[in-house]
Amino acid sequence: MKLCFVTVGATASFNLLIQAILEQSFLRELRAHGYTNLLIQYGKDGKSLFDEFLQQYPPGSEGHHGLVIDGFDFNSDGLDHEMRLAKAWPSEGRLGGLIISHAGSGSIMDALRLGVPLMVVPNPTLKDNHQQELADILQEQGYLISSHYQEIASSLDRAERLRAQMAQWPPVSRAQEVPPPSLEQVMSDELGFLD
């Protein structure tokens, strides 16, 4: 099993990401990269999109591209269990997968702790798009892949390259005159922690 877990978070709707994940081009590309399972946390407003997809492409149909596709709206216990399904676990027959997340700082921190490749997709419909700033900084430092929702299929190659780079963790930043802020500094700033 090689699983791609997608989360849109618990507070804001992100139907643009759900639609992009369910596009045939993305599913085809996911399968081409060896994935067997797609698990989607579609949030409070994404159920209708997920149900429409299943009506149009029932399980086992060509529209699933050989993938087992499941979804749910919310997990009050958090997403730790679902995220861990993307972690390599050879004794259970699991290959290392991928987490695709909205760019919420909590989701990013949870995914980074697991050491699983992370693709972050900032929600462009948010009024103050702090998600894009966070995603850009963390991508620049080599911690994750930042992608626009319309480019997730083509970003899968970058996610697989990130997997190889993660073997050399922590990431090596490009030489710069002023070193970029550390992950700890970025997360502290994002979460509002003061020194």
From TrEMBL:
Compartments, record wording: Endoplasmic reticulum
Official protein name in the record: UDP-N-acetylglucosamine transferase subunit ALG13
Subunit and partners: Heterodimer with ALG14 to form a functional enzyme.
Gene Ontology CC: UDP-N-acetylglucosamine transferase complex
Reactions performed catalytically: an N-acetyl-alpha-D-glucosaminyl-diphospho-di-trans,poly-cis-dolichol + UDP-N-acetyl-alpha-D-glucosamine = an N,N'-diacetylchitobiosyl-diphospho-di-trans,poly-cis-dolichol + UDP + H(+)
Pfam families: Glyco_tran_28_C
Top EC group: transferase
Entry keywords, A to Z: Endoplasmic reticulum, Glycosyltransferase, Transferase
Gene that encodes the chain: ALG13
